[in-house]
Amino acid sequence: MARSEITDEVQVLRFFETGPIDKVEAVFNIVCEKMRERLRDRGPAEAGAPLRRRRSRGNDAGEKEGTSSSTG
Predict the structure, then answer these.
(1) Rounded to whole angstroms, how far apart are CA atoms 63 and 3?
(2) Within a 10 A sphere around the Cβ of 34, how many other Cβ atoms?
(3) Helix, strand or coil, per DSSP, at residue 28
(4) If residue 5 lies in a helix (H) or strand (E), which one and from where to where?
């Protein structure tokens, strides 16, 4: 069943993929600068912490790698 609600993340990605290049470039530059500020403001304790990785949704990843549990 298809989702009727589009998440914020999907809307952001679609903006960067399909938006007018001048607006996309301006927003990209703003985001880059904000991320640089965040990284600069991180304390030494946070800098060594491992990044969280997103888990994939569904079984697609396991089936593609041949790790599905079905036998036959």
Answers:
(1) 22
(2) 10
(3) helix
(4) none
| The residue type at 8 | D
DSSP state of 47: H
State the pTM of this model. Answer: 0.50
> For residue 63, what is the DSSP state?
H
Side chain identity at residue 53, one-letter code = R
pLDDT, tens digit, 9 for 90 and up, residues 17-61? 999 999 999 999 999 999 999 999 986 666 566 666 677 776 555
Residue with the two structure tokens 């007018």: 20
DSSP letter at 58 equals S
Distance CA 62, CA 64 (A): 6
- Identify the three-state secondary structure at position 38: helix
- Tracing tokens 């569904």 back to the chain, one arrives at 58
Encoded tokens for 55 = 């888990």
Please identify which residue in the block is written with the tokens 């997103």: 54
